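pls read this protein:
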Amino acid sequence: MSSKIEYTKPASLIPYSVNFKQSESEMSLSEHLEELRQRAFWSIGALIVSVIVCLVSVKTIVKILQEPAIGIKFLQFAPGEYFFASLKVATYSGILISSPFIIYQIILFILPGMTRNERKTILPITLSSLMLFVLGLIFGYALIAPAALNFFINYGSEVVEPFWSFEQYFEFIIVLLFSTAIAFQLPIVQVMLGLLKVVSGKTMVSIWRYVILGSTIIGAVLTPSVDPLTQIIMSSIVLVLYFGGAGIVLLIDKSRENITYESKI
């Protein structure tokens, strides 16, 4: 039995362009594992460097995270609370910053083993996913976080003074931001299901009643607060994303129908 598998031997770990032509070269199993080791090494290195850079700049990042909480004074309720919270801030920020490079390395590793059509599909989907993730973070930071915090501040302003633990606030804001970013991945999931012919665009549109109910539940689950305004905003965003994704799948289905019709002529 041959110990070789078909695989493109990379010219470098960080090539300047991606070649979509099918490669005819072969790469031994040991070389394949060596490339995996090298890409994992560079990915881990990028993560470590990103975390260190974020740790050096952690005060700036903390100020950015505190921006939505206008008028709130943060306290340290335990020895080392701010220190350990800063480590968490730097770690999550480092993961976020290094994730595009890590995803890029993963794509370069699996790309040669894909078919031509798969290669042409994965790059746009990955770029769209990253863009939607960033948009989700921005949307959560600029709109949902201020709305949720404003509700909590005003709700008990006549009874209690708003003094918060920074660590608890950080956990709250991180869950909120990442929940919003994950919700923004819904169109990507829909497009993948459409490309795999699991669900058609017409089916996605036909179940709109269940989608509205599901968006309400998702808005309540993904939102770390109990205020209705934040949950309504999140549910509305889920609906917009869902029907936007359904529209894209409808276009994909229409394109397939046209190709099938032209092939029969």
Notes: The first strand starts at residue 4 and ends at 6.
